[in-house]
Amino acid sequence: MADDWDKNGCFISFRGAIPHKNPPICDIIYVKMESLTSGLNVYDMFRHVYPDADMVSDSSRMGEVMINGEVKRYKRGFTLQEYAPWSKKSIKSPLLGAFVTDYINREDVREAMNIPTDTPAWVQCATINYSFVPEASYWIYPLLKNKYRILIYSGDTDGIVPTYGTRQWIANLKWEILAAWRPFYTGAPG
Question: 77 near 61, Cβ under 8 Å?
């Protein structure tokens, strides 16, 4: 299927940031690829996708925390459809990342991260109005270089932002390598 995609000159960019006119066969190939991966959680290749899981109710999606005497409300986690609304997949998915939003919004965590008490609660992928450009975020790294330490992280089971792609992206920056790439393990003997 990937060979057919390449052979026909098919191309897709995130939300059409790089315009491209595909031949009609590309739509057919894309739908076939989506159907072959419909049971796959592309954000965590080892986590199950539960086909009978309906969207979580609005009431269970809302979390709240008391910060400096004020209640702050936030939307807990995301579903696959919310992460990738441009996808043609119609699978139902579990709520992903609810624990992350709960953790980051805890009063003690916000305090440890020096987040001012008047700052709204944190919500995954929903507080920034992104604009898309072909060069993605490459433009910002020269501005940050030698001013801030930068950690670039990819999960090893993420099919959307895979480690291999991140390594290529870093190589494209053409910066001096201070330490060779190596895997990082948690809980490993030191």
Answer: yes
Q: Is 89 in contact with 34 (CB distance < 8 Å)?
A: yes
Task: Please name the residue ranges forming H helices in 62-186.
Answer: 80-83, 98-104, 107-112, 141-144, 163-172
Query: How would you class 40 by CB atoms within 10 Å of its CB: exposed for 0-12, middle for 13-18, buried for 19 or more?
Result: middle
Measured between alpha carbons, how far is 178 from 45 in angstroms, rounded to an integer? 31
The domain segmentation of the chain, as residue ranges, is 1-36, 39-132, 135-190
Q: Which two tokens stand for residue 160?
A: 């959307």
pLDDT at 168: 84
CA-to-CA distance for 102 and 100, rounded, in angstroms? Answer: 5
49 and 93 Cβ atoms separated by less than 8 Å: yes
pTM above 0.70, yes or no: no
Q: Tens digits of per-residue pLDDT, 79-135? A: 767 766 666 555 555 666 788 889 999 999 999 999 999 999 988 765 455 566 666
* H helical segments located in 22-140: 25-36, 58-61, 80-83, 98-104, 107-112
Angstrom distance (rounded) from CA 67 to CA 106: 8
16 DSSP assignment:
G
Which segment, 24-28, 78-82, 135-139, is predicted with the most confidence on average?
24-28
